[in-house]
Specification:
Rossmann fold; 3-stranded parallel β-sheet; about 725 residues; alpha/beta
Length: about 725
């Protein structure tokens, strides 16, 4: 089995267990005082507060964190979806001995509560009976404030995807402004980012050993508030890495940087001296070698600067995304007022044995009994699925997986995955023999990784597959094929489906995988995500061109036919992504029509915190390239009317969208696409539509809308 080359010098569960291990394993982590009494507990060591319902399943973050802490002997309680208007629910389990751990849940609370068009959702898949409104906006901040009100002296640690992606000054789509790091707004003591098992256990053991949380400043994968740079750290101003302009690569991964310090108005140059190259794989662990990124921090433009200066905001985003490789990342520091945000380098990824140990914990794999017969849609979706890996090296600019989980693939062993399949078979109610997914962020990156340990430890590329697949990247799908074949042979398993997104540009590098997929693991339809057909938006997404899609479709159709099966690809596309012009969307609509695709569900670009595409949306600058005053302008569809048009073009076949599309075609000088023949996109205006025009015109004379300053959209322009 291929082992990770970027390693921690300590194993995940190597520390001595806490004294409370004598209480054993809880059937469910307690959510009430009565459950605590039944377990013989007088108090909780840690209380986790989450915006999701508590489902004791490894696909739910709080269950993973809770069971991981429990495995080290700590007593962990959960407060799930508390009423947040006062502190009452936050006192339900009493005062924790060590800290409150706070998360919004498996999703950012704003994305959970609002659509891409900023309309409030009336449902919530992570809540019993799909009920909306069970969590507040900006849940991490609100929950942290209530925890502080409940027990003033108790440390608060925030984490999960909301805290992770808001760890730095970031553009917030819903308020349309740059907000401070969430650690300042929440007034938390410490922030953990990414999949945080490793930093979580280190911090928890140190607190249990009597350390003050204010003194815990050096843990990888954490961010804190400081008055000044940490002692013994050397500083370099970010403009010496990007002027702003091209970020210069390290000329040699073995350079040593001389001392350099920065002040608020000055930055000294980094002087490098080359040392002897050691010709053996790099293993990042405690030793005596000096590396150029160790004890070096990058001073970023202040929050007060980036909130008003879009060029420096784009510059800061570039630096942030360059400093994400745990093998060589430097710490980051950003001033907020008279204090500084300090972000330590990312935590080291979990090795296979550590991944196994996390997924082998005693999950019940069902919701907490207090929910009774209530259905939790997010659980129903994943209860027969299995997560086989973490991370993604695709680097798609609109996606938050890389920012949260990292680019290094962390894979479980075959044995661990097979054990989980058997556990589902024996334990989960309603199992009929079908495993709904073996996947993760992507379906086919299992045990794929960089073949050069030196490159993996020092690489700063945002993507290993764009613009082309890196020569160092392994594309041999044999481990995935072997896993699929072994999974199909498990007693009681009738079929194993693959529902995670297939990275088709990787798949075509190993046609055997496409054949295995088509022959055994598709239930008639396979969803894949080309996202667009045009080079302009694809270049801003860092996605492959349609040539890769065409090759994958050719292979998929060939092997489906050989198997005697009628199977179809269902492509996903994004409307309104930065870099997308009206002509791009029109060309995509024509491609869909030529290929006889009529999409039922379409997706408008959602500017999530910290994503590179969100930087381009906010700054209208191509932050993937040289950032300067005359940088390439990136068009972005903004405002309800423009974004709705892009979305309507994806659903060119829906009569509700025809008036809007016709109007746009006239404005673009493309009336030739209005007609009733096969080469036309939409039909001309019908007699019935002409009769309804006066009523629509009268309705359009109402007050201006808040967001667009234009008359409200008529009913025929309603959301598709």
């Amino acid at each position: 089995m291929q082992a990770a080359t970027i390693k921690s010098d300590t194993k995940l569960f190597s520390q001595r267990k806490y004294w409370a291990e004598c209480y054993g394993t809880a059937p469910f982590l307690p959510m009430s005082k009565q459950e605590m009494d039944d377990l013989g507990w007088d108090s909780c060591d840690i209380i986790l507060v989450t915006g999701d319902a508590y489902v004791d399943h490894p696909s739910f973050g709080m269950a993973v964190i809770g069971r991981t802490l429990e495995a080290q002997g700590f007593r962990v309680g959960i407060i799930a979806q508390p009423k947040w208007h006062d502190k009452t629910d936050f006192m339900a389990l009493g005062q924790p001995n060590l800290y409150f751990g706070v998360t919004a849940g498996n999703m950012d609370s704003m994305i959970n509560r609002y659509t891409a068009d900023k309309k409030m959702r009336h449902d919530d898949a992570y809540t019993p009976n799909n009920e909306g409104g069970k969590r507040p906006d900006r849940a991490v901040t609100v929950y942290s404030q209530r925890c502080r009100e409940a027990y003033k002296g108790v440390p608060i640690i925030i984490g999960g995807i909301e805290a992770s992606l808001r760890r730095i000054a970031h553009y917030d789509y819903w308020s349309e402004k740059v907000r401070r790091s969430v650690i300042f707004d929440s007034k938390a003591d410490l922030l953990m980012f990414g999949n945080a098992e490793r930093p979580l256990l280190e911090v928890t053991h140190r607190l249990a050993n009597g350390e003050d949380i204010a003194s815990i400043t050096d843990v990888r994968g954490t961010a804190i508030i400081v008055k000044q740079a940490l002692p013994e750290w050397q500083g370099v101003d970010s403009t010496h890495l990007d002027k702003p302009g091209k970020i210069d690569p390290i000329s040699s991964p073995y350079q040593v940087e001389s001392d350099c310090k920065t002040t608020d108005g000055e930055a000294t140059e980094v002087v490098a001296e080359v040392v002897e190259v050691v010709a053996k794989p790099i293993v990042i662990q405690a030793d005596n070698r000096r590396r150029p990124w160790e004890k070096v921090y990058v001073k970023l433009p202040a929050y007060e600067t980036v909130k008003d200066n879009k060029i420096l905001y784009a510059h800061t985003s570039r630096i942030l995304h360059q400093e994400t490789n745990p093998g060589c990342a430097r710490a980051l520091m950003q001033r907020h007022g008279n204090r500084h945000l300090w972000i330590n380098p990312p935590a080291f990824p979990l090795e296979t044995e550590e991944m196994d140990s996390v997924f082998d914990l005693p999950y019940q794999r069902v919701p907490h009994p207090s929910y009774g017969e209530a259905k939790i849609p997010a659980y129903d979706m994943i209860r027969f699925s299995i997560n086989i890996m973490r991370g993604c090296y695709g680097g798609c600019t609109f996606c938050s997986i890389t920012e949260h989980e990292g680019r290094i693939i962390q894979s479980r062993s075959e044995d661990s995955i097979i054990r989980e399949i058997e556990e589902i078979r024996d334990k989960v109610p309603g199992f009929t023999g079908v495993i709904s997914d073996l996947g993760g962020p992507t379906a086919n990156m299992y045990r794929l990784r960089c073949q050069s340990p030196k490159a993996e430890a020092t690489c700063k590329r945002p993507s290993c597959v764009y613009p082309t697949i890196c020569a160092h990247m392994d594309t041999d799908h044999t481990p995935t094929i072997d896993l699929y074949r072994r999974a199909r042979k498990v007693d009681g398993v009738k079929k194993v489906l693959i529902a995670s997104g297939v990275r088709y540009d990787l798949a075509i590098e190993d046609p055997r995988y496409v054949k295995e997929l088509a022959l055994h693991h598709v239930g008639g339809y396979l969803k894949i995500a080309p996202e667009h057909t045009e080079d302009g938006p694809l270049s801003k997404m860092m996605k492959p061109g349609m040539g890769s899609y065409d090759r994958f479709k050719e292979l998929f159709d060939k092997y489906s036919k050989e198997a005697g099966k009628k199977q179809y690809l269902i492509p996903y596309f994004i409307a309104s992504h930065p870099g997308t012009t009206d002509d791009d969307m029109l060309n995509l609509a024509l491609w869909l029509k030529d290929n006889k695709f009529k999409l039922d569900q379409v997706q408008n670009f959602y500017p999530s915190p910290m994503a590179s595409a969100t930087t381009m949306y906010h700054s209208e600058i191509d932050s993937l390239r040289k950032v300067k005053k005359d940088s390439e302008a990136v068009p972005s569809a903004k405002g309800e009317v423009h974004r709705r048009l892009h979305k309507a073009l994806l659903r060119y076949h829906d009569p509700k969208n025809w008036p809007q599309i016709r109007k746009a075609l006239v404005a673009m000088g493309r009336e030739d696409l209005i007609g009733r023949s096969a080469q036309h996109l939409v039909p001309p205006e019908s007699a019935e539509e002409k009769r309804r025009k006066p009523a629509r015109a009268k309705a359009g004379q109402r007050a201006l809308t808040k967001h667009t300053g234009l008359p409200p959209s008529p009913k025929w322009q309603s959301k598709s």
